């Protein structure tokens, strides 16, 4: 990584700024499962935190990190901003998350393993007054638990929340592993407002991301394993979704490939993770990467070109 590190004192929090190629942050953190939020001219990047010592065992993930940038090239680190221990019902596995703003509050939906009274993975939500928090558990209980979805034999089907607010203000939660699902959220963003609906998405694995560009809704997700990111489009958030094919090929040295898609200052970006950081990146030691995303005139997406250079042109 061509890093340009400097340490800044900001109150009691030490922020390190970095600019460089893909993967983005390799010196201090292993970052995974990116989700991005554009707010007030700044991109906030929420990531998981791979702490496994090597690539032989399994994920070791205890908290979630936040980074920010005003130009997509230079990034500030804000450190861990939420931890499994902030959720009294959770006992580990800080997997994928996504944050969104609604009426001046910031809701951060997370995946974690539930304590033994409701075994399996669960989805919770934290709330804060700024994109950097501080965040606290908004409910004191999980929003989605494994016993609410009984049509899969595994206990990790309720992971990877993606939240989307439609133009009419209605919020939706999408999630799933093996089986994709979605449900309406109440205006308070912390309760479901109706049944959990199945989605019909071919070769679905996990990692849904929903966004809208112009009049078209896009639902991208990880497919098969090792994962490729594929996508579908619809004229309605409720579908039906038309499968559109591969958006990003298998990411370097990582069977997972978890994406976020944003538009920022007139350009579109595809944010994902790879195991490419050396000497010891890999399946359980992933790092976030960013490349440009391009739309065709008919609304379909050009396949992402994963680069080592990353984003070199500052967004203005
Ligand atoms: O990081 C743990 C899990 O791996 C995530 O929840 C999935 O999306 C995959 O990236």
TrEMBL record:
GO terms for biological process: xylan catabolic process. GO terms for molecular function: hydrolase activity, hydrolyzing O-glycosyl compounds. It comes from the Bacteria. Residues 1-21 form the signal peptide. SUPFAM superfamilies: Arabinanase/levansucrase/invertase. InterPro entries: Glyco_hydro_43 (IPR006710), Glyco_hydro_beta-prop_sf (IPR023296), Glycosyl_Hydrlase_43_Enz (IPR052176). The record marks 160 as: Important for catalytic activity, responsible for pKa modulation of the active site Glu and correct orientation of both the proton donor and substrate. Keywords: Carbohydrate metabolism, Glycosidase, Hydrolase, Polysaccharide degradation, Signal, Xylan degradation. The active site is at 33 (proton acceptor), 206 (proton donor). Belongs to the glycosyl hydrolase 43 family. This is Glycoside hydrolase family protein. It comes from Gallaecimonas xiamenensis 3-C-1.
